[in-house]
Amino acid sequence: MRRTLDPVTLRLFVAVCEERNIARAAAREAIVASAVSKRIAALEQAVGTPLLVRGRRGIVPTAAGEALLRRSHELLGSMERLHAELSEFATGAHGSVRVVASLSVLAEHLPDDIASFLARYQAVRVSLDERVSPEVVRSVREGAADIGVLWDAIEMSGLRTVPYRFDHLCVAVHPLHRFATRKRIRFADTIDEVSIGLAPGGTMDAMLRRQAALLGRALAHRIQVSSLDAACRIVGAGLGIAVLPREATAPHVSASGLAMVPLAEPWAVRRFVICSRADEALSATTRLLIDHLRLQARVPAGAQPRESGGTRVARAV
């Protein structure tokens, strides 16, 4: 069994679990599908129990597979951090931090805040990845990431959280829409309008559907998109309205000439947090980055770095 549980096999096992398909996992890891199947078969033979089964939605892990998946994330995350830290000695750098963040955070101040940190600590390497909120929390819990930055609307028990920044949800409308002249608007007034949904299945989509349900209504989006830029373009074409964060969409709103009407709801202010494991599990460099982000969040709005114009950051080093 010790010979079978090598990093390559664990990485392939994780890929199959995440992709739910051997062919896609093989393409992701740049290996032939037959080699993936052989590795998984040898792994199952070594542990003496099935780890994967084929379900209605593709390949899924068994109970034993779920246990191995959790441990694999931890082991691979630890090995990645170890490799990164050892590699830094060759380049003269002194530490690395892996950050995962939600789309909304990446579309606002986080890239600039990290850039100012790297300008000050040039010997540090920071990797930045986009994930949906549940995956941000899971990555931090499993040790695949050092810190996560996300909206505090998701359960994060067992993790340490500190305040970061906040933004405001507004209703984006075409400048000729009848809502465009309003100073504020209640969410209930928008439900019957043709709407555009952002990131279906995401945290904000779930929250809006929950708020509609509390009003005894149901959302029926005409179009669903995964990026802020696409949502603004569709609203600008007059195809509907959308609930969007004001700060993150500022560049797109300005370019499209949209009207942003603030939502008059207590939940319309979204608070972002930095989550991590316990202090003793963090490197000194990670703690330094957390302190820097907290300090940047306290800077007066007029002194903030420019807003990031991108709606997606896949990876920046």
Structure, briefly:
By secondary structure, the chain is an alpha/beta fold. It has 11 helices and 12 strands.
What does this structure look like?
Strand 7 (196-198), helix 8 and strand 8 form a beta-alpha-beta unit. The protein has helices spanning 7-19, 22-28, 33-47, 63-91, 103-106, 110-120, 133-141, 203-214, 228-236, 246-256, 284-297; strands at 52-55, 58-61, 96-101, 125-130, 147-151, 160-173, 196-198, 223-225, 242-245, 259-262, 269-276, 315-316. It has 317 residues and is α/β, with parallel strands linked by helices. It contains 11 helices and 12 strands. Helix 1 (7-19) crosses helix 2 and helix 2 packs across helix 3 (33-47). The strands form 3 sheets. Strands 3, 4, 5, 6, 9, 10, 11 and 12 form an 8-stranded mixed sheet that branches. A two-stranded antiparallel ribbon has the order 1-2.
Write the layout of secondary structure elements.
Layout: H1 7-19, H2 22-28, H3 33-47, E1 52-55, E2 58-61, H4 63-91, E3 96-101, H5 103-106, H6 110-120, E4 125-130, H7 133-141, E5 147-151, E6 160-173, E7 196-198, H8 203-214, E8 223-225, H9 228-236, E9 242-245, H10 246-256, E10 259-262, E11 269-276, H11 284-297, E12 315-316
Parallel strand pairs: 3-4, 3-5, 7-8
Antiparallel strand pairs: 1-2, 4-12, 5-11, 6-9, 6-10, 6-11
Helix pairs in contact: 1-2, 1-4, 2-3, 6-11, 9-10
Salient structural properties:
317 residues; two-stranded antiparallel sheet; alpha/beta; 11 helices; globular; 12 strands; 20% strand; eight-stranded mixed sheet; disordered C terminus
